[in-house]
């Protein structure tokens, strides 16, 4: 299994698969063919259908140069596509292509290049590839999940996670300070600042917790929607869940950063497991793959933060994923705004519920985390393409129909 560094990527929003991935691919293609007279990029599948809303064309123009680049939103979906997020690059001279590269943007900012050799063994950081294997190893060695991460990643992982945590906190701070309307034409107003400040006299503790956690999640998600700097956890569209719960717990319980970094390590471990054995791509498996994974990561992080056992941690992550199964990805106008921003807040609270429930019912569980990840992948592949980040069904379709009337 690959490093948790593949789960956490610092970059600009609004989409890890529609902006981060294509930007990375474009830079690679530019480095291979810098002397091309012109470039042509053809977008297929979800990239074509929601690329404008996600800013795919914008990042391609920024990297390759608007004056010499043509971006084509193809209405065709060839059966040979390796992934719903696929794009073809062409380097041209005198109007004719002389080099091409097909790339799949597989989620979380990662890309897969067609024809390239499979990742070599040295790219794998963890010998274990399932949670069952990891839990068995940890019990054998009498180590915690965060110690298991350090054992495989090396001590340098803590400096990396310190930067991740600082970026997450900054995204919350920037989001709470910002006001106005998000770009894209939906006229969605930023709500994080108002939500955070909306305390009332004699506010009940449960209401305060809901308000603050949701304000943090809104803050990061609104920053993402406004092309701000965030950390994929595991994607841009689900980036608000994990920092919201960790920052709330840190400030409520005066938890030091060093302890939070260990929680981030455990969260990253669960995210890496989903990337390997399931999917974190909304275009491939719906929003269950993005927000469901983020919720699992956050629930596991809370368990690590508060000293719960490995069994309780697995149960919390499983609960969080199980109750997102079948969740569709139907962004209105292809923007990462409705329902994405609000969904981050709801998932953050659900992660806290999963954490609390796991401590009460751990001994009674029947479903493993590995099983629910496999179920999520199978479910996602059977969801209609209309509900996998194409904006052709669900809220996206009904909103357009209503607006047209």
What distinguishing features does this structure have?
405 residues, alpha+beta, 60s Ribosomal Protein L30, Chain: A, five-stranded mixed beta sheet, two-stranded antiparallel ribbon, 16 helices
Overview of this protein structure:
The protein is an alpha+beta fold and 405 residues long. It has two domains: 4-113, 60s Ribosomal Protein L30, Chain: A; 124-404, no CATH class. Helix content is 55%, strand content 10%. It has helices at 16-32, 45-54, 56-64, 131-141, 145-153, 157-177, 192-197, 205-225, 241-253, 257-277, 282-285, 287-305, 310-322, 340-361, 369-382, 394-404; strands spanning 10-12, 38-43, 69-73, 86-93, 96-107, 110-113, 229-231. A five-stranded mixed sheet has the order 3-2-4-5-6. Strands 1-7 form a two-stranded antiparallel ribbon. Helix 5 (145-153) packs across helix 10 (257-277), helix 6 (157-177) crosses helix 10 (257-277) and helix 9 (241-253) packs parallel to helix 12 (287-305). The longest helix is centred in the last third of the chain and has 22 residues, at 340-361. The protein is globular and about 65 Å long. The chain starts with 9 loop residues before the first strand and ends with a helix. Mean pLDDT is 93; it is low at 118-122.
Give a short overview.
Helices cover 55% and strands 10% of the residues.
Helices and strands, with pairings:
Elements: E1 10-12, H1 16-32, E2 38-43, H2 45-54, H3 56-64, E3 69-73, E4 86-93, E5 96-107, E6 110-113, H4 131-141, H5 145-153, H6 157-177, H7 192-197, H8 205-225, E7 229-231, H9 241-253, H10 257-277, H11 282-285, H12 287-305, H13 310-322, H14 340-361, H15 369-382, H16 394-404
Parallel strand pairs: 2-3
Antiparallel strand pairs: 1-7, 2-4, 4-5, 5-6
Helix pairs in contact: 1-3, 5-10, 6-8, 6-10, 8-9, 8-14, 9-12, 9-14, 10-12, 12-13, 12-14, 13-14, 13-15
């Amino acid at each position: 299994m690959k490093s948790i560094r593949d789960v956490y990527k610092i970059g600009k929003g609004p989409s890890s698969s529609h902006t981060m991935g294509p930007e990375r691919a474009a830079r690679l293609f530019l480095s291979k063919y810098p002397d091309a007279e012109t470039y042509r990029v053809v977008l297929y599948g979800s990239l074509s259908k929601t690329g404008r809303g996600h800013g795919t064309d914008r990042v391609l123009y920024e990297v390759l140069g608007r004056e010499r680049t043509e971006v084509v939103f193809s209405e065709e979906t060839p059966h040979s596509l390796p992934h719903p997020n696929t794009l073809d690059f062409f380097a041209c001279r005198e109007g004719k292509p002389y080099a091409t590269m097909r790339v799949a943007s597989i989620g979380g900012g990662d890309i897969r290049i067609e024809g390239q050799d499979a990742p070599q063994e040295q790219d794998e950081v963890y010998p274990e590839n399932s949670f069952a294997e990891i839990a068995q190893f940890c019990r054998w060695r009498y180590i915690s999940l965060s110690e298991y991460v350090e054992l495989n990643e090396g001590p340098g992982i803590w400096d990396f996670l310190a930067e991740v945590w600082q970026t997450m906190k900054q995204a919350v701070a920037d989001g709470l300070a910002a006001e106005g309307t998000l770009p894209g034409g939906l006229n969605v107003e930023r709500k994080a600042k108002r939500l955070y400040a909306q305390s009332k006299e004699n506010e009940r503790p449960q209401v305060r917790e809901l308000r603050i956690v949701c304000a943090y999640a809104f803050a990061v998600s609104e920053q993402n929607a406004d092309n701000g700097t965030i950390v994929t956890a595991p994607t841009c569209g689900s980036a608000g869940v994990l920092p919201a719960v960790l920052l709330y717990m840190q400030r409520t319980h005066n938890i030091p950063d060093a302890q939070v970094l260990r929680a981030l390590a455990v969260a990253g471990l669960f995210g890496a497991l989903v990337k390997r054995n399931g999917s974190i791509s909304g275009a491939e498996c719906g929003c269950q793959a993005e927000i469901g994974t983020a919720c699992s990561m956050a629930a596991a992080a809370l368990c690590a933060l508060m000293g719960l056992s490995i069994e309780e941690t697995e149960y919390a992550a499983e609960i969080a994923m199980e109750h997102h199964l079948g969740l569709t990805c139907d962004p209105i106008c292809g923007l990462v705004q409705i329902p994405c921003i609000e969904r981050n807040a709801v998932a953050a609270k659900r992660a806290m519920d999963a954490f609390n429930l796991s401590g009460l019912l751990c001994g009674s569980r029947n479903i493993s985390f590995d099983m629910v990840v496999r179920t999520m992948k199978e479910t996602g592949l059977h969801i209609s393409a209309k509900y996998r980040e194409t904006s052709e069904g669900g809220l996206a379709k009904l909103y357009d129909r209503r607006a047209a009337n």
